[in-house]
Amino acid sequence: MIFAIYYHGNEAKIEGLLMASQVFLSIALPFAIIPLVMFTSNKKLMGEFANHTWVKYAAWFATIVLVTLNIYLILQTVGLLK
C-alpha cells in the first residue's frame, strides 16, 4: 500500500517493483530449500523424524527442479535468455 501511494498508482512502476521482489525471492529460495532438505534428511540430527529414503529423493528432485527453474527465470529477467 505504501508503494502504491508513493508511486501515485502508477501500475508500470508497481509492476516493476513486484517483478524485482519475485526475482529476489527466487534468488533467496535455494538458500532456504537446500539446507532444509539436508537437515531433515540427516538421521543423526533428526533421529526417528528424518525423511524416509523415498521422501529424501523426492525432495532433492523437487529442489533441483525449483533451483533450475529459478536460475532460468533470473537469466531471463536480466536479459541473458529470451
From TrEMBL:
GO terms for molecular function: cadmium ion transmembrane transporter activity; manganese ion transmembrane transporter activity. One of its GO terms (biological process) is iron ion transmembrane transport. Keywords: Membrane, Transmembrane, Transmembrane helix, Transport. It holds the Pfam family Nramp. One of its GO terms (cellular component) is plasma membrane. The chain crosses the membrane at residues 16-37, 57-75. Its main location: membrane. It comes from the Bacteria. It is a multi-pass membrane protein. It is found in: Membrane. InterPro entries: NRAMP_fam. This is Manganese transporter mntH (Hop-inducible cation transporter). It comes from Lentilactobacillus kisonensis DSM 19906 = JCM 15041. The lineage of its organism: Bacteria, Bacillati, Bacillota, Bacilli, Lactobacillales.
